[in-house]
Amino acid sequence: MPEKIMVVDDEPDLESLIRQRFRRQIRENEYDFVFAHNGLEALAKLLEHPDLNVILSDINMPEMDGLTLLAKLNELKNPSLKTVIVSAYGDMENIRTAMNRGAFDFVTKPVDFTDLETTISKTLREINVLRNAQKEHDQLVAIQYDLTVARNIQQAILPKIFPPFPDRKEFDIYASMTAAKEVGGDFFDFFPIDTDRIGFVIGDVSGKGIPAAIFMAVSRTLLKATAVKGLPAGDCLSYVNDLLCPESVESMFVTIFYGILDTKTGEVEYANGGHNPPYIICKDGGITEIPHTGGIALGVLDDIKFSAKTLKLNPGDSIFLFTDGVTEAFSREEELYSEERLEGLLKDMNTLKVKEICQAIIKDVHEYSTGVQQSDDITVLSIKYFGN
Prior knowledge:
By secondary structure, the chain is an alpha/beta fold. It contains eleven helices and 15 strands.
C-alpha cells in the first residue's frame, strides 16, 4: 500500500507541482497524495482517508489556519499521524509556535523540493518506527493476556480448597505453589486411592515459563491417572516415566516424589524420582530425612524401574515436601537458603498444623530473599497423620 500524504495549502499551483515532482513515486505506488485548500477541508478529507500518514500544512489559510488545524489533529491522539509545517521563512514565529504545539518538522517557502522529499522520507521512517513499536506492544499485550489465562488454568488444576477432606480425621494436608514467572513448572496433588489410602505427590519440571507449565500439566495428569488405579508407588513412576519419555522435548524432565499413606496404619509407601528428599517432623520434636529410593528424574530414560520403600508415621508425625525453589533461594549476599536452614526451622514445628508449617517456611524464604527476584518456583506440601 502506498504511503498516503495530504497537502493542505491554498496556493492553486502547488498541487500540480507536487504531482510533477513526485510523479515517479506516484507511478510506482509509493506515495498517494490527497489535497485540501484549508483546515476545514483537511479535517473532512481526514475522515474520508483515515489511513493518512503525513500532513503537509501551510499556516496562513482561509477558514481554518494551520495552527488551528494542528490543534485539532492533536486532539486525535494518533502518534502515527505526523504534521510537517510548510510556511514562509519570514514566518518563523508561527513555525516555532507550530513546533511547540507538536508539529514533527517544517519546510520553508519557496519550497525546495529536494529538501521536501528528504523531510517526507524522514517523517515516514519515524512513522514506521512508531508502527513497529505499536505492533510489538500489541503482541506483548496479547502474550501477557495468554500468560494470564495460562496462569489461571494452571492454578485451577491444582487443589486449592483446604482442608480438602474435612470429614477425614485421620490426617490433614496442605500445599502451596508460588510460580517464579506467570506460570510455573512445579506441581502438587493429593487424592484418595481407596477407602484407606491417600496418594500425595510433589513435582518439579526442568525449565521455566510456558514449556515447563505444559510439561507440568502433562506430568501431573499422567501421575494422577495412573496412581488412582492403585499401582504401587514404584510401578506408578515407572509407568509414567515410559509415557513421558516419548513426549519429552528439548530434554525436559520432571523430578517427582510420590507417596501413599495408609490412614489405618500410618504406613507410607513411597518412590522418589530424583526429587529433594522430604522430611519427617516427629511428634516429639526433631526431624528425619526420608531415605532416597535411588530413582532418577522422569522423562530422561525410558524402561527404568523405580524402587519403592516404606516408612511408618506415628500419630502426630508430619511429612514435609518441598521443591528446590525453597532451598536454592538466594539472599542479597547471593547465599543459598540451604537444607540446613530449612532443617533448623522444621525441627521446632512439631506442634504446628500443616498449614502453619507451610506458611512459616514460605514466609521465611521470602524474608531471606528480600530484595532478590524469585528465580524458581516455590512449592511446599505437608501431611500430618493423626491415627484412628
